[in-house]
Amino acid sequence: MDDRLLIALLDQAPDAVIFADPGGLITYWNAAAERVFGHAADAVLGQRLDLIIPEAQREAHWHGFYRALGAGETKYAGKALPTRALRADGETIYVELSFAIVKSPGGEFAGALAFARDITERWTQDREMRRKLRELEGSRAPS
After folding, report:
1. Quick check: helix, strand or coil at residue 101?
2. d(CA 50, CA 37)
3. Which pTM was predicted?
4. What is the chain's alpha carbon radius of gyration, rounded to the nearest angstrom?
5. Domains of the chain (ranges plus CATH)?
6. b/e map 79-103, b = 16+ CB within 10 Å
7. What one-character DSSP code corresponds to residue 50?
8. Residue 84, helix vs strand vs coil
9. What is the rounded distance in angstroms from the CA atom of residue 92 to the CA atom of residue 70?
10. Is the Cβ–Cβ distance between 64 and 57 less than 8 Å?
11. What's the pLDDT tens digit per position in 25-44?
């Protein structure tokens, strides 16, 4: 496949596509990532992933990131993980992330690839449904 076509596919993907090198520095950020997280690509390239990770989750994130790179795989391979993320304006959103550890053609670990989708609206609706269900179940409790 032509490299230009591959870049066009990533640039135009409907979900956010983010690639970070083994040090956690962002080296690729597509247009959907700009929409989801509110950061322009030129502002995030070379920055640490911390700019989209809520402070309370950073320690766990970096522990998992380096463990996955060391093992050459992530325990979340093939799974979509709902989690919190930060937008450029400081708003906390919910995203569904899927991950892959990427090897270079020479076999070295090149970094981590993530696909993200904003699920804030769905998350909020689900939470409200769960709250209403608890209320209904509570009102039917025997007295």
Report:
1. strand
2. 12
3. 0.86
4. 18
5. 3-139 (3.30.450.20)
6. eeeeeebbbeeeeebbbbbbbbbee
7. G
8. strand
9. 29
10. no
11. 999 999 999 999 999 999 99
